[in-house]
Design a protein that fits this description.
Elements (H helix, E strand, L loop, with lengths): L13 H5 L8 E2 L4 E3 L2 E11 L8 E5 L2 E2 L5 H13 L6 H10 L5 H17 L14 H13 L9 E5 L5 H10 L3 E5 L2 H13 L1 E9 L2 E8 L7 E5 L12 E7 L8 H11 E11 L26 H8 L3 E16 L2 E13 L4
Parallel strand pairs: 6-7, 6-11, 7-10, 11-12
Antiparallel strand pairs: 1-3, 2-3, 3-4, 4-5, 8-9, 12-14, 13-14
The protein binds S-adenosylmethionine (SAM).
């Protein structure tokens, strides 16, 4: 008998939660369009909140729902990324990239797709045997999960991959646990890459050669063994119920959010008693992502240096397990440059009371 694939959770209304109302599940409005290859999957449609006082109507585009707490702000700031096309022929993308190069939004998007697309999926690219090896984040997360003693196989709740980027870790977690796994990212181009890989087994991404020269890579990848999906959502406002997650991973996300302590509180909210979370971070603070007062151990010598254990103890009731202080994490920039970070990695446990 073929084991049943666990059903994916239904998203709760992120707008209601942000406004302090009890969030109900969103429902797809009639008239939605199915994916070509799966009549049950929504390719385009609108997810509506049933609470008349809310009235949120959140679009699903290319199979990826936009589940953010402040849609007006998200679309004002990032609507261009949601609507930008990613199906240009290589020569056309190259011509556009020549004029929309260094410092432009297009260049930033292509760099992210290049770095995370390759690290998460490059192991399946038959023509990519280059250095650095692919799978750096996967190795980091796998090692942290193993150290924490998370059992192989099904878990009692949802698995959440916060800051899932190109979705390679989401896939690995679905293979490991059978799902359901939800990948969460605010970047529409990365979420689309992840969704196409998970749902269709196709990866297509621009791999940066040098400067504004990118090569389009396209290859099949194995679909995950278990159920997995990707939502455009804020890791600080995840549209899932309290105490619904058995495992949360947040690889290299803590130093990308405005409020790292709020991320920890959100992880604590999501975890069920006995649940585990894995955090890794290079503490690569930037003003653009995190206001300096929120940096952990990165403002002055008096801070005492970065420690995830101290941060967790000061900001949550989660129980820290082993902290690894210097695990390598590589991010390939282009043919001639790779950034190697030394990250801290910590597993935490939500105690059963
Ligand atoms: C440094 S990258 C790490 C990506 C991936 N976890 C890895 O380690 O390979 C951070 C990712 O988090 C996403 N991100 C940043 N802030 C976020 C937020 N508030 N909510 C969800 N995703 C966020 C970015 O779009 C990016 O994909």
């Amino acid at each position: 008998m073929v084991p049943a694939v666990p059903a994916l959770p239904r998203p709760l209304c992120p707008v209601c939660r942000a406004r302090g109302r009890a969030p109900g599940p969103l429902a797809i409005e009639p008239g939605w369009r199915a994916a070509d290859d799966d009549a049950r999957t929504v390719e385009q449609g609108v997810l509506a909140c049933g609470d008349a006082a809310c009235g949120a109507r959140l679009p699903v585009i290319d199979g990826v729902p936009v589940l953010v707490p402040d849609p007006d702000r998200y679309f004002a700031e990032a609507g261009v990324y949601v609507l930008a096309r990613d199906d240009l022929d290589p020569a056309v993308a190259d011509a556009v990239g020549r004029y929309l190069s260094g410092g432009s939004w297009y260049d930033a998007v292509r760099q992210h797709l290049s770095s995370y697309g390759r690290d998460h999926w490059g192991e399946f690219d038959p023509d990519d045997r280059d250095d650095p090896p692919c799978g750096s984040t996967g190795a980091l997360v796998e090692a942290a999960i193993a150290r924490a003693g998370v059992p192989d196989g099904p878990l009692a709740g949802t698995v959440v991959d916060l800051g899932c980027a190109a979705g390679g870790i989401t896939r690995a977690l679905a293979d490991r646990t059978g799902g359901p796994v939800v990948g969460i990212d605010l970047s529409a181009p990365l979420a689309r890459l992840a969704r196409r890989a998970l749902a269709r087994g196709e990866v297509r991404y621009p791999r940066r050669r040098v400067g504004s020269v990118y090569d389009l890579r396209g290859f099949p990848v194995p679909r995950p063994r278990g159920s997995a999906t990707v939502w455009i959502a804020d890791a600080l406002a995840v549209p899932l119920p309290d105490a619904s997650a058995a495992l949360v991973v947040a690889p290299n996300l803590l130093d990308c959010v405005a409020d790292p302590a709020a991320l920890l509180r959100e992880i604590e909210r999501l975890l069920m008693p006995g649940g585990m979370a894995v955090l890794t971070t290079p503490f690569d603070w930037s003003h653009a992502a995190t206001p300096p007062p929120n940096w952990i151990g990165g403002r002055s010598i008096a801070d005492g240096g970065p420690s995830l254990v101290t941060f967790v103890r000061q900001n949550s009731n989660l129980s820290p397990l082993v902290e690894e202080s210097a695990v390598p994490w590589t991010v390939r920039l282009h043919d001639r440059a790779t950034m190697t970070y030394s990250v801290r990695s910590l597993a935490v446990h939500k105690i059963v009371v």
